[in-house]
Amino acid sequence: MKRIALILLPILAFIVGAVAMAAWHNHQTRLALTSNNRPLDGPALFAPPPASTADPAQEPDGGLLSDANWPQSAPTPEQVIYAQPNLLGHEITQLKPRTPGKVNLYAIVFAGDGSENVFRNEAEYFDKLFSERLGARGHVLVLENNTASLTTRPLATWSNLEDALDAVAAKMDLKQDILLVYFTTHGSEDHTLLVDMDPLPLDQIGASDLPGILAEHPFKYKVVVVNACYSGGFIPPLQGPDSMIITAARADRSSFGCGEQSQLTWFGHAFLVDALNRTDNFRQAFKLASLQVATWEKHDHYEPSDPQISFGPGITAQLDKWRDAFKPGPAIPFTPTLAVSTGAAQ
Fold first, then answer.
1. In what side-by-side order are the strands of the sheet with 243-247?
2. Distance CA 142, CA 125 (A)
3. Which residues are bridge partners to 226 per DSSP?
4. Centroid of chain to Cα 329
5. Distance CA 161, CA 205 (A)
6. DSSP string, 282-340
């Protein structure tokens, strides 16, 4: 028995110590995120990391999870992760109840690539356009990846998208209101949207993933806009009689406009700024935007991106009812939130 006790005693001590350490860590995390002295959207929420005293020669030379390029003035990656429930919760508290007696529209905008300012510019403009011109004030939820908004906006991630859908579903009449989800990011030839806030290891969203994400709630009427290269590949799995899918390119083509000369993507500028400031009809806006993008591409000798649209009779009729329920506001001028960054095709 003594031999058994001698063997078990160190094991039990290790387990007790590990549990105590985990409890202490969780306690410290909760304190950091819930302290009344740290406002939700202010710098105080994220205590700056202490200055490193390590020998630079001993620092890691980069890799999958390296934070070598993470801004020194930003909260640490771990702080950003732990802040997500608070940041998303704050965004959700800004959602207003639906207006009874008419078709309401609730929107989620998802800016997936944190390395390009153009996508954040687009997300912020989308919020302003739909809030001030298109009758959706208090019905827009913004998810975006960008170092400039780590303390003010929830990240554009798979998990936050699901939670955002939970939030808008709780506000909507799921049998008559319209869900609009707008994605702006890079896209790949295998029809996967880039979700990136390096060095955070974020899950990507593919064309086969999105239907399942949306199906977690019985949204009847849906508009999904995918502004990315090769985004036409998202149409087949999403189309239906009560859905409208708009994409910046067909399934085998690139789209353009996130280069150093751009403040918005070409399709985003043509669809949001140029077209939806002229009409509140999404189908008409798509036609106007497609013509504008084609003109720009022809001028610069690019292969046409060939934007795509699919819609059923159910969503068309419901969008008409939504448009009848509000009067569009004046055109909203575009002012970039951030300076442009480098890049070429989406």
1. 140-144, 105-111, 178-184, 221-227, 243-247, 308-311
2. 10
3. 183, 247
4. 25
5. 10
6. HHHHHHHHHHHHHHHHHHTTPPP---EEEE-HHHHHHHHHHHHT-----------SS--
Which structural domain range is residue 164 located in?
77-324
Query: pTM value?
Result: 0.80
Residue 118 lies in a domain: yes
Element (H, E) at 31: helix 2-34
Q: In this predicted model, what pLDDT tens digit does every residue of 293-304 receive, in sequence order?
A: 999 999 999 999
CATH code of the domain containing 137: 3.40.50.1460
Q: Is the pLDDT of residue 196 over 50?
A: yes
Number of domains in the chain: 1
Q: In this structure, is residue 241 part of a structural domain?
A: yes
> 196 in a domain, yes or no?
yes
The two structure tokens encoding residue 302 = 């690019």
Give Cα 211 to chain centroid, integer Å: 16
Q: Are strands 192-193 and 243-247 parallel, antiparallel or unpaired?
A: unpaired
Question: Contact, 192 vs 205, CB < 8 A?
Answer: yes
Q: Which residues pair with 245 in a beta bridge?
A: 224, 310
Residue 250's Cα: distance from chain center in Å? 21
* 82 inside domain: yes
Structure tokens given for 125: 């403009």
Higher pLDDT, 54 or 4: 4
Widest Cα–Cα separation across the chain: 87
Q: Is the peptide bond before 154 cis (omega within 30 degrees of 0)?
A: no
**Which residues contact residue 318 at a Cβ distance below 8 angstroms, ignoring those fewer than 6 apart?**
103, 176, 178, 221, 242
pLDDT digits (tens, 9 = 90+) for 298-322: 999 999 999 999 999 999 999 999 9
* pLDDT tens for each residue of 20-63: 434 433 433 333 333 333 333 333 334 343 343 333 333 333 33
Cα separation of 185 and 346, whole Å? Answer: 7
